[in-house]
Specification:
alpha+beta, NADH Oxidase, four-stranded antiparallel beta sheet, binds flavin mononucleotide
């Protein structure tokens, strides 16, 4: 498996729900395991535990079978769900770039035995395996996504913002909004309706972490150095407009 430039994968990846159930060979699984160990966290003071598990370790709850899953567990600390979104999206792109299908799976859960095997709280699964359907979209027109104007009033930096726009999210809800300019981009989550909040509120910070990773990857692809910051003045400003502040990306 290659450590390829992941940026291009943003514009062709898709969720894979039909898998060849033959397990991947041990070499490939070992490479995936070692890549998991090299992921960059959004917040490096949060302990995470990422395990590769199999079909029989998962209560699928009507979802189709996949031969393998990454089960994400985390310490519960401020920003922990966003951190998991940010880290696992690196796997989603890495696997897709290397010919392996993936799908974030918020509905299925691991068996009790797996849940008890970690000291951390279970967060989410990502299914993966050899795809039994086309791995990529043939054109960006196949993506169903909000327009750039709906998700951003960032001045300039259109190419970088496009990468965030194409990010996957639970139920394709795309609960993000970005402000700022080409030197500093602030990320927010939209406040969900009460029903949406109850049913899928937990996924929103994960989704933002995913989009934030796309943003950082694109900025670095275009040669910018990035730094993740928290800006307390901004928190006050935009929360009045119905957004929750998550984090900012400084671009040099
Ligand atoms: C946090 C999260 C949870 C998700 N949970 C599920 C799920 O339980 N079942 C499923 O089929 N797809 C799930 N998805 C996949 C989304 O439905 C999918 O990413 C979205 O519709 C956009 O489609 P795309 O990934 O093909 O671009 C999830 C995605 C995210 C980010």
């Amino acid at each position: 498996m290659e450590k390829i430039e992941l940026y291009e994968t943003i514009f062709k990846r898709k969720s894979i729900r039909n898998y060849d159930l033959t397990p991947l060979n041990q070499n490939t699984l070992n490479e995936i395991s070692s890549h998991i160990q090299s992921l960059t966290p959004l917040y490096d003071d949060i302990e995470v535990d990422l395990k590769i598990i199999s079909t029989e370790d998962v209560k699928r709850r009507f979802m189709k079978k996949a031969p393998h899953y990454i089960a994400a567990f985390s310490e519960e600390k401020e920003g922990y769900l966003t951190n998991i979104g940010f880290m696992l999206q690196q796997m989603d792109l890495f696997l897709s770039a290397n010919g392996i299908g993936t799908c974030w799976q918020g509905i299925p859960k691991p068996t009790n035995e797996i849940l008890e095997s970690s000291r951390q709280e279970f967060i989410i699964l990502i299914a993966f395996g050899r795809p039994a359907e086309p791995l990529y979209r043939s054109s960006t027109l196949e993506f169903k996504r909000k327009s750039l104007q709906e998700i951003s009033d960032v001045e300039g930096a259109e190419e970088i913002m496009e990468a965030a726009r194409f990010a996957p999210s639970a139920g394709n809800y795309q609960p993000w909004f970005f402000t700022g300019n080409e030197n500093m981009i602030h990320a927010y989550s939209i406040k969900p309706s009460i029903i949406r909040g109850v049913l899928a509120g937990r996924f929103i910070p994960i989704d933002i972490g995913i989009a934030f990773y796309h943003l950082k990857l694109a900025a670095e692809h275009f040669g910018r150095k990035t730094e993740v910051l928290m800006d307390n003045d901004i928190v006050r400003d935009y929360s009045k407009k119905g957004y929750n502040y998550i984090a900012s990306l400084k671009l040099e």
